[in-house]
Amino acid sequence: MRRLGRRDAHEWSQRHLSHYVDGDLGRMARRRLEHHAQECPECSRGIRAVRALLRLMHTAVNDLVEPAPPNIFDKVRADVAGTAGETNGQGSQ
Amino acid sequence: MTSAPAIASAVGTPEQLLVQRACGGDVGSFEELVSAYADRLFSIVLRIVGDRAEAEDVVQETLLRAWRNIGRFQERSMFFTWLYRIAVNEANRALEKRARRGVSVPVDDETVQLAAPAEDGPARQVEHRELRDGLEVAIAGLAPPYRTALVLRDIEGLSTREAAGVAGVGEAAFKSRLHQARMKLRDALGDAALIASVAPNVP
């Protein structure tokens, strides 16, 4: 893997924080990011922030599944009623 | 349509049996099949379209399409993946229609209410409320493909593979959208507020 200058390493790390947190980086890329984050407060804070974001979305929302309203089958039932009407009509002929 | 002997000889999970009966025109089996996923289906659609009345309409349309096309359902995919995929397509269609009319995505108070941890004191509750409001606005502000990726993977908790299948893209493309969506939320909320949200509760 190409060696990056400090500024490039920082920009690269910032773009790959979410990949890192998800374990989507290869071994070399992971080490590159970890190496950079050890000496870069902004990137190590970024890693914590992405983890916090995931936790926030997961805990805050998973507790609350929205109950489906009772009318969700209305169109299906209307369709069935319509089809049944046609069939009956044909049958009576 | 499926004949009666095919149903009688069916050996499999109840879900497969329900699919077969629904294919045979049994609407009761179809409703039973869908009911297991109805709340999650509605939640996903609600979070993508951001409006309760529109979400109801999208879900009704989704189920109508699923009912009419149940015969095309391939059992090598999971039923819920197939169903959610129709829903995501319908939701995106509704968003496109709305965009053509020039209406912005609403964020009404009852749409995406995120729960606060119950053990927090009043000050923390206020902070959480502000962060949750910011999160809702930021999610609503994402372009539909990014919002869909985030809702399916990070909020509804589908695996990457399932979520990519529902979104109808390859896993690499899906991941790319997901990472970008998260970075937009991170920018919108700020690292300090995010980190504080998981910090130990100091009285």
H/E order of the elements of chain B? HHHHHHHHHHH
What best-fitting shape of chain A do the alpha-carbon axes yield? Answer: elongated
The SS-based structural class of chain A is mainly alpha
Q: What is the share of helical residues of chain A?
A: over 70%
Largest sheet of chain B: none
User: What fraction of residues of chain A sit in β-strands?
Assistant: under 5%
What kind of sheet is the major sheet of chain A?
A: none
Sheet/helix structural class of chain B? mainly alpha
Helix/strand layout:
The complex is a heterodimer of chains A (93) and B (203).
Chain A: H1 6-15, H2 17-21, H3 27-39, H4 41-62, H5 74-92
Helix pairs in contact in A: 1-3, 3-4
Chain B: H1 4-8, H2 14-23, H3 27-35, H4 38-49, H5 52-69, H6 79-101, H7 122-140, H8 144-155, H9 160-167, H10 171-189, H11 191-197
Helix pairs in contact in B: 2-3, 4-5, 4-6, 5-6, 6-9, 7-10, 8-9, 8-10, 9-10
Description:
Chain A has 93 residues and is mostly helical. Chain A is 74% helix and 0% strand. Chain A is built from five helices and no strands. Chain A has helices at 6-15, 17-21, 27-39, 41-62, 74-92. The longest helix of chain A is centred in the middle third of the chain and has 22 residues, at 41-62. Mean pLDDT of chain A is 85; it is low at 88-93. Chain B is mainly α. Helices cover 70% and strands 0% of the residues of chain B. Chain B is built from eleven helices and no strands. Chain B has helices at residues 4-8, 14-23, 27-35, 38-49, 52-69, 79-101, 122-140, 144-155, 160-167, 171-189, 191-197. The longest helix of chain B is centred in the middle third of the chain and has 23 residues, at 79-101. The interface between A and B is large, with 39 and 46 residues.
